[in-house]
Amino acid sequence: MQAEKLVGVVVDSTGAPVSGVTIEDCDPAFNRVLVSKTTDTTGYFAFPAAKIGTTHYLHVQMNGFDPMRITVVLRRFAKTKLHIRLSVAT
Fold first, then answer.
1. Domains assigned to the chain
2. How far is CA 28 from the centre of its chain?
3. Distance CA 53, CA 69 (A)
4. Mean pLDDT throughout 5-14?
5. Which of 13, 14, 39, 85 would give a disulfide with 21, using CB separation of 3.0 to 4.6 Å?
6. pTM to 2 decimal places
7. CA 88, CA 64: separation in Å to the nearest integer?
8. Burial letters for 44-81: b for 16+ Cβ neighbours within 10 Å, e otherwise?
9. What does the alpha-carbon distance between residue 51 and residue 73 come to, in Å, rounded to a whole number?
């Protein structure tokens, strides 16, 4: 996945924003959390210190939903905001 900034919104399968989702920026092996954020009431999150040209390994988790691992490369002129859709836990 590519984006211009490491910001976005997390929604459920109906498209409704999900608050309280933990988003961890990890090392490439997903063994160590470098920084962690939680979505606000509108499902929004941001890692403002992330810079163009870097790669980020996001672990997205919330009780009741399947966890996700997403690799995001920050590039100029890419989408400005990430849109992450969670799936209900199976």
1. 2-85 (2.60.40.1120)
2. 15
3. 20
4. 93
5. 39
6. 0.88
7. 6
8. ebebeebeeeeebbbbbebeebeebeeebebeeeeeee
9. 10
